[in-house]
Amino acid sequence: MSSDPASRTTGSRLLLVRHAKAVPKGDPAEDFERALGERGRADAPRTGRWLAENGYEPDLALCSPSRRTRQTWQLLVPALADPPDAVYDERLYDAAPNALVTVLAERGAGLGCLALVGHNTGIHELATALCGSGPEELLEQLRDGFPTSGVVVVDLAGGWEDLRPGRGRLTALWAPAH
Question: Which of 26, 61, 90, 103 is most buried, by the most CB atoms less than 10 A from its CB?
Fold first, then answer.
């Protein structure tokens, strides 16, 4: 058994990624097309490097089809040694936690590790609801917020069937420092 923190013996792993910093909000009707800002374009590749350096290699990426989430994924993926396919699912755009769980359950069957690139508040609410255990300092950081370009790594010992409140273990939490 490896002592590598990214290794696991059973279960499933969920990599929750909040999109990078976008340009300021304007007309709500145009929200879907908001692009990444300068900071977001700089941070997204750093997120990819962190994933790669820590051995977090998803089997599949699920991504909201909004412009800022697509750009985040496209900027972080070059750092991954074996980039997975990405599925852009409209149900993930600005979705509530229950909608996120539905898509994850549908797409996760047979896969060990999924990445989900999404939006606050839904992705933060999902992360806090799932994480019933983990290092207390990480759980406290997660309760405090989910920064842009941040990653929350959730291990589900019972596989995708454990995609229920409190059943996940918070394994890692990372965000670029500003």
Answer: 61
